[in-house]
Amino acid sequence: MALSKRGVLVLIAAAIVVLLAGWRALSHPRPSATVVDYPRLAPGVIMRDVTFHSQALQRDMQYRAFLPENPGKQKLAVVYLLHGGGGTFRDWSNYSNVAQFAAGERMLVMPQGDYSYYTNFALRPQERYEDYIVNDLPGDVEARFPARTDRGGRAIVGNSMGGFGAVKLALRHPEKYGFVGALSAAIDVSRRPFSWKRLSQSRAYREMFGPDGSDSRRNNDPFVLVRTADSPNTPYLYMTCGRQESLLAPNREFSALLTRYHIRHEFHEVPGGHDWNQWNTQLPALFESLRSSSATSAVFNTTSSH
User: Fold this and answer.
1) What is the mean pLDDT of the chain?
2) Which of 41, 124, 57 is nearest to 49 (CA)?
3) pLDDT of 208-263, one tens digit each?
4) Is 262 exposed, middle or buried (0-12, 13-18, 19+ CB in 10 A)?
5) pLDDT range class, residue 293, cuts 50, 70, 90
6) In whole angstroms, what is the distance from residue 94 CA to residue 61 CA?
């Protein structure tokens, strides 16, 4: 039976409601009644889960911290670890062996980032995830733990969505971080055009970054930010991407752009796909680069430079 014009309009309206509900669920996932949480710990490392009030987001947010059991008298350098899309603040501790790198004079902080790309939303001004990560989070960490407060004592690392966030935030706030790590970064996300085939995703990107071609898009595009970066003062970038990933091409392009603009970095094409098995194997090399890069020499006892 053919639908009337009114029936077609009702179906379209219903579809829009479903899409909106799905987007809101991605943006603010409700806590599951049963949270599966099996953190991988390491000898000499303790774990702390923290809930604090974010002024930028006007709600409580959570993060997980790994820190040395006996940190000594010196304050700790902090590595902020950003999770990927659909993840939570538990991901790094549950799916990787990162706890072993919270040792000596270093702690790890893993914040909840929702589905935000760690961005101040262009079309939803109340969703200020960039301000939350850059200002509120370190403010709480540094008040609660014996954490360094200077640029040389902060690094930011992420995978997938978190890799984009780490690179973008460091380029927008180079005074905040001395080192950036990006594993399989969704580096081109703010350049992706609207697509009817991916309507829900395109709508989400528009809410975050603004319409295609807008200033807000450009202001959150790492490819644009590199062109105006102050090269000597830009944090050192460590990037990897799996050879079986669709993100390999844009990561290659971004690395070439960093070279062109004389931004200190290294980029490694590695075996594997877009998953924790691949990312977990890259952590030793990433933290070795963190230790040895001249960008963080004051904190991580570097003796060599890239």
Assistant:
1) 88
2) 41
3) 999 999 999 999 999 999 999 999 999 999 999 999 999 999 999 999 999 999 99
4) exposed
5) confident
6) 19
SS3 content of the chain, % helix, strand, coil (to 5): 45, 20, 40
Q: How far is Cα 60 from Cα 5, in angstroms, rounded to an integer?
A: 46
CA distances from 127 to 124, 147, 151, 306 (A): 6, 27, 26, 38
Angle CA 298–304–306, to nearest 5 = 105
- Percent of the chain topping pLDDT 90: 78
Q: pLDDT tens, 49-101?
A: 999 999 999 999 999 999 999 888 889 999 999 999 999 999 999 999 999 99
Query: Cβ distance 255 to 182 under 8 Å?
Result: no
> CA 192, 223, 157, 287: dihedral to nearest 10 degrees?
130
Name residue, tokens 């960039």: 130
Q: Which of 44, 183, 61 is nearest to 103 (CA)?
A: 44
DSSP string for 175-205: TT-SEEEEES--TTGGGPPP-GGGHHHHHHH
The side-by-side arrangement of strands in the sheet containing 59-68 is: 45-54, 59-68, 106-111, 77-82, 154-159, 179-183, 236-242, 265-270
Residue pair 296/236 in contact by the 8 Å Cβ criterion? yes
Q: Torsions phi, psi of 134, nearest 5?
A: -80, -35
Pair of tokens at residue 38: 């099996």
- Beta-carbon neighbour count of residue 243 at 10 Å? 11
Which runs of E-coded beta strand occur in the chain? 45-54, 59-68, 77-82, 106-111, 154-159, 179-183, 236-242, 265-270
pLDDT, one tens digit per residue, over 94-128 is 999 999 999 889 999 999 999 999 999 999 999 99
Sign of CA dihedral 85, 88, 151, 137: positive
Half-sphere exposure of 278 (CA within 13 A, CB side): 19
